[in-house]
Amino acid sequence: MLLLPRRRFLGLTAGALAAPSLSFAQAAGRPEITIAVQKLATSNTLDPLSEQSNVGTRIMNSYLECLIGQDLRGDLSPIPRLATAWTRIDDKTVELDLRRGVKFHNGDELTAEDVVFTFSPDRMMGDTTPEGWDKTISVVERTVTARTKELPPQVPAVARRLWPSLVKVEAVGDYKVRFINATPDVTMEGRIMALGSQIISRRAFEEAPSWLDFARAPVGTGPYKVEKLDPDTELVLVSHDDYWGGLPPLKRIRFVQVPEAAQRVNGVRAGQYDMACDLTPDQFAQVESDTRLEVVGGIINNIRVTCFDKHDTALVDPRVRQAMLHAIDRQMIVDQLWMGKTVVPKGDQFKWYGDMYLSDWAAPEYDPAKSRQLLKEAGYKGDAIPYRLLNDYYTLQVNNAQVMVEMWKQVGLNVEIEMKENWSQVWDPNGTRGVHDWSSGGSFPDPVATQPNQWGPQGQAVQTGEYGNDEVNTLCGVLQTSTDKAARRKAFQRMLVILEREDPAYGVINQNATFTAKSKSMGWQVSPSFAMDFRPGNWS
Q1: What is the pLDDT of residues 366-398, one digit of tens each?
Q2: Coiled coil where (predicted)?
Q3: How far apart are the first and last CA of the chain?
Q4: 279 within a domain of the structure (yes/no)
Q5: Model-level pTM greater than 0.90?
């Protein structure tokens, strides 16, 4: 019988068990709050072109904004943000009317000039061109430490991952801009609302001493501005009193990094923190035993996956990767680790894709006998497969890894956990990378936001040398450039067959869910996303 490991948390001290004094303090009529999170950022910066992460998504909408926003208090559907309206000119062109009177954190007014600069070579694209959208830009994921005005090499790589065919953004007057693509793209509006397309102040960027200085304190239009960032310690945001959407409800927001889940729970019960993020289901009872606290949250548009470096010796034969997929009892993970608070997804896709959602698809079935047969056919001799693992960057990450390693062991796979301190070590091409955890999130409602962004020609797994498949690259071209819905759906279906069955790039585990502890008296609504919304109207 497989024994699933369970988390055991430190008991509360007598002082912590006493009725807590909730910590949000009044400041000039508005509160200041402290939020405990597992991780602040993965890149040492707050810039969306380097901080392409789940934890970055949580904080970024507070200080930066896109032209088209997401309805964070609804179903994440597109809503006007810095643009008041948008129009399709043709298959390659979208025109947007800018909101007037919007002030950046430095007091400057937002104009078309700032939007044009945001998507310019100097800020985003470097020397890349849209003609090379199907050619991979190789990149090594490293933390930026040098203070120079030049773009770090990963910035243009990420930019072309997000905007493979963008030719330029041009001004059509002071308050109107036009996005022009080299190829047809039915998802341009989605790209405009995605992580990485936030608008920045041109003057602030050009006047910053270095790219890193700006990236640690980006100047945007959000309801809060960056006061201080101590990487791996705390991020302090303060009210942008000239926010176009009205006076922000909070005077100051302090995010503190508290890696241990037990400490986050103890802290919110003791009144040290106003919110504690990244809770696990077996912590709910401990939080809710205090009648003044509650847990909010649920399933979000993000899927936990395990990724393969298909070029490593033990994983070159796709049958070994297939065997690993069939050895995982996903429903057991959902039922016992997640206590039924999430679901097993139908592959790497989301229902909000609408007509592009493949409802008849499914994750690989749990079949240990099939795993053993595949390993026998592949001639697998027990070679060690490293599993590069972070300490609970994802909720239940270590527990989940231990469970899967045991499941793999039961079919004859020799998977060895290697603990890593950060993502640079996970992505490091030196040595044998084997497998690692990841997640796949939908920034907008179309498969283009996931598969090409992860495993296409400019996908992160391809840019870092983990994966590559010529047919997948071709299918990405169809998905990104075709205007024929039937052709796009067919391409997506074939892509999932390759990525999840024939030449596996990853294996889905469960749909992600995020849970936060807070006071019941706190009038704040959680989003169906990693993003936390503290705009006017979402606090009382």
Answers
A1: 999 999 999 999 999 999 999 999 999 999 999
A2: none
A3: 50
A4: no
A5: yes
